[in-house]
């Protein structure tokens, strides 16, 4: 996910002129450039073109809506996503403070599922509500539909929206991705003031990443091969702890942003936690979810894998009253099946922990010795006996 | 007595405890905290009298259930909430005599609701 806090904003007056010409039938080719700077940002022009090609009416008063029955069915069908998104929308709304705003969650088709905001904004009968169709083909360029079409973060300031009725807002949208990378929804923030949009941008990214982690955690929990294996369940709980902390940090950041304070350090910490979670989840997936299959050796960086294990096991080790320290770490590529390698490293660490008494300091070595690389753990086990051994990749 | 409620937060993750402190203090709670269960038990046995205790389950030396049992044996009568990521949190909470449980990761509003509920019925 890119952080775009320093991105410049468009010249709203000139965009408004370009918009009027465009919806009037001008294709703008050759007329929208001002020196090196685009009057209309390239992704916005693409969105306008898609909007016009799909027959969207730039002067429609508001977004089209599903029927009441259709909306009810949609919300029933997407209830897990709505529940997952709820705390993050609440944090975004809190960050906007008393400014007019709406934090929104839409599904992968641009159908609006949930709106949280100030009473005036969400009470406006023309403002999109659950069941609103916000894909570009029905609602033109907007924070939801354009994020879907562009497959990434977008910001639309005032007249960058295709429908005139949305010109009062600055909207941002970020795709919410399921494990595997497919878009499962859009998290969007609409505000009246450009300064508010700037203020909530980083927390919008951060909240979306945290929501993706929760999607990943649910997917891992549902797909676990052997949930009864105690150590794997412990490690899963430890990963959940990271998400719990990230959520609290978002909550703290939201309150700081709302009060005008700097929340960048808190958001950075939350972003680091979510990234750490993603790495740990990848490792845990290999141990607990991926099916057992014939080995398919790949080039793996053993020292990185061991570092990930030390991170994943940090709470387990602390609970056991043992300290892990890094010793000699040779950077080394090995040839091994990722799942088999993960299992062998886990067994190596667990064996060492089992024979270690409370208060032990275990030193972790990754040593290349000729054509073989080894994980060694001392002093709880004989340093001469490697905990796991792999052929070095050439 | 100014009506401020006193919460004791016990979790072995320092960062988690720090964030909880910030948020609970913003909600006008007086917060005591510990990242060590034995230390928290010692403080309660030495006379710390929180209105409510929030305990993690998996912690070094003492788990949340054992910590609560020892606090109770020192006379703690305040409600206690189990705050954990364990799958069987309900069973663990019931088994160890917690008054409520909140599964990690949680919405802070949900935790506040559980605290209010426990304090209201305490």
Widest sheet: strand ordering of chain B? 2-1-3-4-5
Instruction: Output the CATH homologous superfamily of the largest domain in chain A.
Output: GAF domain
Along the chain, the helix and strand elements of chain B come as EHEHEHEHEH
Bin the strand percentage of chain A.
15-25%
Please identify the structural class of chain A as seen in this structure: alpha+beta
Biggest sheet architecture of chain B: 5 strands, parallel
Question: How many discrete structural domains of chain B?
Answer: 1
Ends of chain A: how far apart?
34 Å
- N- to C-terminal separation of chain B? 17 Å
The 3D shape of chain A can be described as elongated
Quote the beta fraction of chain B: 15-25%
Numbering strands along the chain, what is their spatial order in the largest sheet of chain A? Answer: 4-3-7-6-5
Number of strands of chain A: 13
Oligomeric state of the chains?
heterodimer
Please, could you describe this protein's structure?
The complex is a heterodimer of chains A (394) and B (122). Chain A is an alpha+beta fold. Chain A folds into two domains: 12-206, Beta-Lactamase, CATH 3.30.450; 298-391, 2-Layer Sandwich (Heat Shock Protein 90). In chain A, helix 8 (194-223) runs antiparallel to helix 9, helix 8 runs parallel beside helix 10 and helix 9 runs antiparallel to helix 10. Chain A is elongated. In chain A, strand 1 (33-34) and strand 2 form a beta hairpin. Chain A is built from 13 helices and 13 strands. Chain A starts with 11 loop residues before the first helix and ends with a strand. Chain B is α/β, with parallel strands linked by helices and 122 residues long. Chain B has one domain: 3-Layer(aba) Sandwich (Rossmann fold), CATH 3.40.50. In chain B, 43% of the residues lie in helices and 19% in strands. Chain B contains five helices and five strands; from the N terminus they run βαβαβαβαβα. Chain B has helices at 14-26, 37-45, 64-73, 89-95, 108-121, and strands spanning 6-10, 30-34, 52-55, 80-84, 100-103. Chain B has a five-stranded parallel beta sheet with strand order 2-1-3-4-5, with helices on both faces. In chain B, strand 3, helix 3 (64-73) and strand 4 form a beta-alpha-beta unit. In chain B, helix 2 packs parallel to helix 3. The longest helix of chain B is centred in the last third of the chain and has 14 residues, at 108-121. The radius of gyration of chain B is 13 Å and the shape is globular. The two termini of chain B are 17 Å apart. The model of chain B has no long low-confidence stretch (mean pLDDT 94).
């Amino acid at each position: 996910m890119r952080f775009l806090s320093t991105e410049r904003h468009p010249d709203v007056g000139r965009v408004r002129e370009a918009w009027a010409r465009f919806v009037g039938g001008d294709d703008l080719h050759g007329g929208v450039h001002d020196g090196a700077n685009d009057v209309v940002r390239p992704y916005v022009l693409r969105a306008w073109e898609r909007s016009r090609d799909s027959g969207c009416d730039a002067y429609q008063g508001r977004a089209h809506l599903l029927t009441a029955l259709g909306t009810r069915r949609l919300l029933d069908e997407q209830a897990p996503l709505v529940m997952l998104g709820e705390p993050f929308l609440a944090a975004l709304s809190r960050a906007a403070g008393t400014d007019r705003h709406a934090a929104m969650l839409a599904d992968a088709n641009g159908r609006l599922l949930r709106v949280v905001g100030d009473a005036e904004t969400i009470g406006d009968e023309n403002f999109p509500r659950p069941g609103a169709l916000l894909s570009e083909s029905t609602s033109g360029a907007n924070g939801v539909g354009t994020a879907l079409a562009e497959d990434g973060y977008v910001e639309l300031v005032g007249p960058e929206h295709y429908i005139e009725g949305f010109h009062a807002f600055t909207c941002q949208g970020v795709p919410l991705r399921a494990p595997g990378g497919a878009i499962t929804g859009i998290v969007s923030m609409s505000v009246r003031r450009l300064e508010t949009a700037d203020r909530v941008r980083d927390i919008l990214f951060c909240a979306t990443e945290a929501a993706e982690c929760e999607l990943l955690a649910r997917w891992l929990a549902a797909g676990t091969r052997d949930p009864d294996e105690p150590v794997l369940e412990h490690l899963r709980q430890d990963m959940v702890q990271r998400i719990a902390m990230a959520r609290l940090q978002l909550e703290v950041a939201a309150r700081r942003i709302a009060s005008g304070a700097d929340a960048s350090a808190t958001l950075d910490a939350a972003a680091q936690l979510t990234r750490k979670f993603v790495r740990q989840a990848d490792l845990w997936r290999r141990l607990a979810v991926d099916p057992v299959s014939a080995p398919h050796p790949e080039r793996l960086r053993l020292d990185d894998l061991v570092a990930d294990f030390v991170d994943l096991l940090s709470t387990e080790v602390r609970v056991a009253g043992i300290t892990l320290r890094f010793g000699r770490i040779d950077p080394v590529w090995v040839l091994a099946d990722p799942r088999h390698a993960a299992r062998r490293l886990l067994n190596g660490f667990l064996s060492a922990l089992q024979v270690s008494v409370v208060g032990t300091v275990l030193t972790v070595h990754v040593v290349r010795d000729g054509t073989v690389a080894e994980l060694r753990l001392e002093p709880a086990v004989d340093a001469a006996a490697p905990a796991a051994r792999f052929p070095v990749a050439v | 007595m100014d009506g401020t409620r006193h919460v004791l937060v016990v979790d072995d993750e320092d960062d988690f405890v720090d964030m909880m402190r910030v948020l609970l203090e913003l909600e006008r709670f007086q917060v005591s905290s510990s990242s060590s269960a034995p230390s928290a038990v010692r403080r309660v046995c030495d006379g710390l009298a929180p209105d409510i205790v929030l305990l993690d389950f998996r912690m070094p030396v003492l788990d949340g259930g054992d910590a609560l049992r020892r606090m109770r044996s020192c006379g703690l009568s305040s409600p206690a909430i189990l705050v954990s990521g364990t799958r069987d949190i309900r069973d663990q909470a019931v088994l160890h005599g917690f008054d409520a449980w909140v599964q990690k990761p949680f919405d802070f509003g949900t935790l506040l609701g559980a605290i209010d509920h426990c304090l209201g019925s305490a």
